[in-house]
Amino acid sequence: MKNKPKSAFEQLLAIMARLRAPNGCPWDRSQDHRSLRFLAVGEVYELLDAIESGDDHELAEELGDLLMQIVFHTQIARERGAFDFEAVCRLLVLKLMRRHPHVFGKVRDVETPQAVLAQWDQIKQAEKAGSRLPRHSALDGIPKHLPALLRAETLVKKARQAGLLPRTNARRRPLSQGELARRLFALASYAQSRRWSAEELLRSEALEVEGRLRRKERQRAARKAV
Question: What is the pLDDT of residue 55?
């Protein structure tokens, strides 16, 4: 009886193991989780370009490049005896089922995308509370390597949800999307003309604002405890 041919995914796992083997590729063998960390970020940006291009071939190729990063990390972890790809998939399966009780459980009153997101956040907070890395602040969980503007947006969103910032900015006349985009571009242009890094300036400001908001959060908690 002939052996069943390996699937493309099985071949991928075998290739990565071969590349990392003692007689494999010197570059692949020299990598670790830390040395690879920013390569994954680059692959995500290339994936975004492929999505916006509307080219399915490019999209499939860039998804493959991102998958390679995942397989690379899981192979390194497997060599360390930490976990393997099966364990990663198992954790993801369990997470998706836990966070969709309206699909896999008995919850029946979640009928809109907004309600789904609110439920997801509630379940996530409950999970983190009992984890090895509990989140004590409403501002915890913002990835420190997010681009500065995205980090600022995420910080504001979390702060508003926690009541640490007002829901809306007090302006006499709201800006349109086009006006806001032009102002952002003008600020980036001005920073460049002064040879400043707009990215670093915004990152620094966001960190300072986060520090103030965390102090405000602690003070509010202390008042409630009295």
Answer: 96
Distance CA 3, CA 27 (A): 33
First-to-last C-alpha distance (Å) of the chain: 76
Structural domains of the chain in order of their starting residue, each with its CATH number: 8-97 (1.10.287.1080), 138-164+182-226 (no CATH)
Three-state DSSP state, 176: coil
pTM over 0.85: no
Q: Give the other-Cβ count within 10 Å of 203's Cβ.
A: 19
Q: What is the pLDDT of residues 96-113, one digit of tens each?
A: 999 999 999 988 888 899
Q: Which helix (H) or strand (E) holds 135?
A: none
pLDDT surpasses 80 at 161 = yes
Measure the CA–CA gap between 150 and 203, rounded to whole angstroms.
Answer: 10
Cβ(57)–Cβ(90) below 8 Å: no
Q: How many CB atoms lie within 10 A of CB 51?
A: 13
